[in-house]
Specification:
Length: about 210
Protein backbone atom coordinates (compact mmCIF):
# COMPACT_ATOMS: atom_id res chain seq x y z
CA UNK A 1 0.00 0.00 0.00
CA UNK A 2 1.41 3.39 -0.99
CA UNK A 3 2.04 5.95 1.72
CA UNK A 4 0.72 9.34 0.51
CA UNK A 5 -2.85 10.33 -0.33
CA UNK A 6 -2.03 10.86 -4.01
CA UNK A 7 -0.49 7.40 -4.21
CA UNK A 8 -3.44 5.88 -2.37
CA UNK A 9 -5.86 7.45 -4.84
CA UNK A 10 -3.80 6.00 -7.67
CA UNK A 11 -3.90 2.58 -5.98
CA UNK A 12 -7.71 2.46 -5.85
CA UNK A 13 -8.21 3.86 -9.35
CA UNK A 14 -5.78 1.34 -10.87
CA UNK A 15 -6.59 -1.79 -8.86
CA UNK A 16 -6.34 -4.80 -11.14
CA UNK A 17 -9.20 -6.75 -9.53
CA UNK A 18 -12.01 -6.45 -7.01
CA UNK A 19 -9.93 -8.39 -4.49
CA UNK A 20 -7.08 -5.93 -4.89
CA UNK A 21 -9.48 -3.01 -4.52
CA UNK A 22 -10.92 -4.45 -1.30
CA UNK A 23 -7.43 -5.04 0.11
CA UNK A 24 -6.40 -1.49 -0.75
CA UNK A 25 -9.41 0.02 0.99
CA UNK A 26 -8.92 -2.25 4.03
CA UNK A 27 -5.37 -0.98 4.36
CA UNK A 28 -6.38 2.64 3.76
CA UNK A 29 -9.22 2.68 6.31
CA UNK A 30 -7.17 3.97 9.26
CA UNK A 31 -5.94 7.03 7.31
CA UNK A 32 -8.84 7.54 4.93
CA UNK A 33 -10.69 10.32 6.76
CA UNK A 34 -7.60 12.45 7.36
CA UNK A 35 -6.43 11.90 3.79
CA UNK A 36 -9.74 12.90 2.24
CA UNK A 37 -10.09 15.95 4.47
CA UNK A 38 -6.62 17.06 3.38
CA UNK A 39 -7.74 17.21 -0.27
CA UNK A 40 -11.04 18.96 0.48
CA UNK A 41 -13.35 16.03 -0.25
CA UNK A 42 -16.81 17.57 -0.79
CA UNK A 43 -19.04 14.62 -1.78
CA UNK A 44 -20.33 14.00 1.78
CA UNK A 45 -21.45 17.60 2.24
CA UNK A 46 -23.20 17.61 -1.14
CA UNK A 47 -24.96 14.36 -0.29
CA UNK A 48 -26.08 15.52 3.17
CA UNK A 49 -27.51 18.68 1.63
CA UNK A 50 -29.47 16.77 -1.01
CA UNK A 51 -30.87 14.27 1.50
CA UNK A 52 -32.03 17.04 3.82
CA UNK A 53 -33.72 18.75 0.87
CA UNK A 54 -35.60 15.63 -0.27
CA UNK A 55 -36.22 13.40 2.76
CA UNK A 56 -38.43 15.14 5.29
CA UNK A 57 -38.89 12.30 7.77
CA UNK A 58 -35.86 11.76 9.97
CA UNK A 59 -36.90 8.15 10.60
CA UNK A 60 -36.90 7.37 6.86
CA UNK A 61 -35.02 4.20 5.95
CA UNK A 62 -31.83 5.35 4.18
CA UNK A 63 -29.14 3.10 2.71
CA UNK A 64 -25.59 4.39 2.33
CA UNK A 65 -24.35 2.27 -0.58
CA UNK A 66 -20.56 2.26 -0.51
CA UNK A 67 -20.49 3.58 3.04
CA UNK A 68 -16.71 3.81 3.38
CA UNK A 69 -15.80 5.12 6.82
CA UNK A 70 -19.31 6.49 7.34
CA UNK A 71 -18.74 10.22 6.87
CA UNK A 72 -22.13 10.69 5.22
CA UNK A 73 -23.90 8.79 7.96
CA UNK A 74 -22.18 10.90 10.57
CA UNK A 75 -23.41 14.09 8.89
CA UNK A 76 -26.96 12.73 8.48
CA UNK A 77 -26.97 11.61 12.12
CA UNK A 78 -26.09 15.16 13.19
CA UNK A 79 -29.06 16.34 11.12
CA UNK A 80 -31.35 13.96 13.03
CA UNK A 81 -31.64 10.97 10.67
CA UNK A 82 -31.88 7.85 12.80
CA UNK A 83 -32.65 4.92 10.49
CA UNK A 84 -29.43 4.54 8.54
CA UNK A 85 -28.06 1.34 7.01
CA UNK A 86 -24.85 0.87 5.08
CA UNK A 87 -23.02 -1.56 2.82
CA UNK A 88 -19.44 -1.70 1.68
CA UNK A 89 -17.13 -4.35 0.26
CA UNK A 90 -14.32 -3.42 2.68
CA UNK A 91 -14.51 -4.77 6.22
CA UNK A 92 -11.85 -2.28 7.28
CA UNK A 93 -14.03 0.60 6.12
CA UNK A 94 -17.12 -0.88 7.77
CA UNK A 95 -15.29 -1.16 11.08
CA UNK A 96 -14.52 2.57 10.93
CA UNK A 97 -18.13 3.37 10.02
CA UNK A 98 -19.44 1.24 12.88
CA UNK A 99 -17.28 3.14 15.37
CA UNK A 100 -19.14 6.36 14.50
CA UNK A 101 -22.36 5.03 16.06
CA UNK A 102 -24.53 6.61 13.36
CA UNK A 103 -25.77 3.47 11.58
CA UNK A 104 -28.48 1.07 12.66
CA UNK A 105 -26.86 -1.76 10.71
CA UNK A 106 -23.89 -2.30 8.41
CA UNK A 107 -23.27 -5.13 5.96
CA UNK A 108 -20.64 -6.43 3.59
CA UNK A 109 -22.03 -5.94 0.09
CA UNK A 110 -20.77 -5.42 -3.44
CA UNK A 111 -22.53 -3.02 -5.78
CA UNK A 112 -23.16 -4.82 -9.03
CA UNK A 113 -24.01 -8.09 -7.28
CA UNK A 114 -27.28 -9.30 -5.74
CA UNK A 115 -28.07 -7.47 -2.48
CA UNK A 116 -29.71 -9.10 0.53
CA UNK A 117 -32.26 -6.33 1.12
CA UNK A 118 -36.00 -6.64 0.54
CA UNK A 119 -37.67 -5.18 -2.53
CA UNK A 120 -38.79 -1.64 -1.74
CA UNK A 121 -37.01 -1.56 1.61
CA UNK A 122 -35.55 1.96 1.50
CA UNK A 123 -37.02 5.45 1.29
CA UNK A 124 -33.74 6.72 -0.09
CA UNK A 125 -30.39 5.37 -1.21
CA UNK A 126 -27.28 7.52 -1.22
CA UNK A 127 -23.99 6.65 -2.89
CA UNK A 128 -20.93 8.82 -3.37
CA UNK A 129 -17.59 8.08 -4.95
CA UNK A 130 -18.60 4.53 -5.88
CA UNK A 131 -19.55 5.13 -9.51
CA UNK A 132 -16.18 6.22 -10.75
CA UNK A 133 -13.09 4.90 -12.49
CA UNK A 134 -12.40 1.27 -11.59
CA UNK A 135 -15.25 0.95 -9.09
CA UNK A 136 -18.93 -0.13 -9.12
CA UNK A 137 -20.54 -0.91 -12.51
CA UNK A 138 -23.64 0.58 -14.08
CA UNK A 139 -25.44 -2.75 -13.55
CA UNK A 140 -25.59 -1.91 -9.82
CA UNK A 141 -28.61 0.27 -10.54
CA UNK A 142 -30.78 -2.77 -11.24
CA UNK A 143 -30.55 -3.84 -7.59
CA UNK A 144 -30.54 -0.31 -6.20
CA UNK A 145 -33.78 0.39 -8.09
CA UNK A 146 -35.30 -2.84 -6.80
CA UNK A 147 -34.70 -2.07 -3.13
CA UNK A 148 -35.97 1.53 -3.32
CA UNK A 149 -39.60 2.16 -2.38
CA UNK A 150 -41.94 3.58 -5.03
CA UNK A 151 -41.66 7.33 -4.60
CA UNK A 152 -38.26 6.95 -2.94
CA UNK A 153 -35.04 8.55 -4.09
CA UNK A 154 -31.73 7.44 -5.52
CA UNK A 155 -29.14 10.14 -4.77
CA UNK A 156 -25.67 9.45 -6.09
CA UNK A 157 -22.56 10.82 -7.73
CA UNK A 158 -21.06 9.64 -11.00
CA UNK A 159 -17.64 10.59 -12.29
CA UNK A 160 -17.87 12.55 -15.53
CA UNK A 161 -15.28 10.31 -17.30
CA UNK A 162 -17.39 7.18 -16.77
CA UNK A 163 -20.91 8.57 -17.33
CA UNK A 164 -21.07 7.53 -20.96
CA UNK A 165 -17.91 5.45 -21.32
CA UNK A 166 -18.85 2.90 -18.62
CA UNK A 167 -22.53 2.62 -19.55
CA UNK A 168 -24.16 4.67 -16.78
CA UNK A 169 -26.01 6.95 -19.17
CA UNK A 170 -27.41 3.98 -21.11
CA UNK A 171 -28.33 1.99 -17.98
CA UNK A 172 -30.20 4.83 -16.31
CA UNK A 173 -31.95 5.71 -19.58
CA UNK A 174 -33.05 2.08 -19.90
CA UNK A 175 -34.42 2.01 -16.35
CA UNK A 176 -36.34 5.21 -17.07
CA UNK A 177 -37.68 3.83 -20.36
CA UNK A 178 -38.84 0.74 -18.46
CA UNK A 179 -40.86 2.93 -16.09
CA UNK A 180 -38.74 2.13 -13.03
CA UNK A 181 -37.01 5.48 -12.51
CA UNK A 182 -37.40 9.09 -13.50
CA UNK A 183 -34.71 11.78 -13.36
CA UNK A 184 -35.47 14.72 -11.08
CA UNK A 185 -32.38 16.89 -10.94
CA UNK A 186 -28.61 16.96 -11.19
CA UNK A 187 -25.86 19.32 -10.14
CA UNK A 188 -23.46 21.06 -12.43
CA UNK A 189 -20.13 19.21 -12.69
CA UNK A 190 -17.89 19.91 -9.69
CA UNK A 191 -14.49 18.89 -8.35
CA UNK A 192 -14.91 16.44 -5.44
CA UNK A 193 -11.20 16.55 -4.51
CA UNK A 194 -10.19 20.16 -5.25
CA UNK A 195 -6.92 20.14 -3.27
CA UNK A 196 -5.56 16.92 -4.72
CA UNK A 197 -2.50 17.49 -6.90
CA UNK A 198 -3.42 14.68 -9.28
CA UNK A 199 -7.25 14.63 -9.08
CA UNK A 200 -8.10 18.35 -8.91
CA UNK A 201 -9.23 18.24 -12.53
CA UNK A 202 -11.52 15.25 -12.01
CA UNK A 203 -15.22 16.17 -12.12
CA UNK A 204 -18.36 14.44 -10.90
CA UNK A 205 -22.09 15.15 -11.02
CA UNK A 206 -24.59 14.43 -8.26
CA UNK A 207 -27.86 12.98 -9.62
CA UNK A 208 -31.32 12.56 -8.14
CA UNK A 209 -33.69 9.92 -9.54
CA UNK A 210 -37.05 8.88 -8.14
CA UNK A 211 -38.40 5.33 -8.08
CA UNK A 212 -41.66 5.15 -10.02
Amino acid sequence: MSSGVEDRLADVYHAASQAELVKTYDQWAANYDADMQSIGYVHPAVMAGLVSRLVAKTDAAILDAGVGTGTIGSLLHILGYSNLSGIDMSQGMLDRARARGAYKDLHIGVLGEALSFKTGQFDAIVSTGTFTVGHAPASAFDELSRITKPGGFLIFTIGVPVWSAAGFEDKLSALCDAGLLKPLWKTAPYHPMPYSKTESGFEAVAHIYQRC
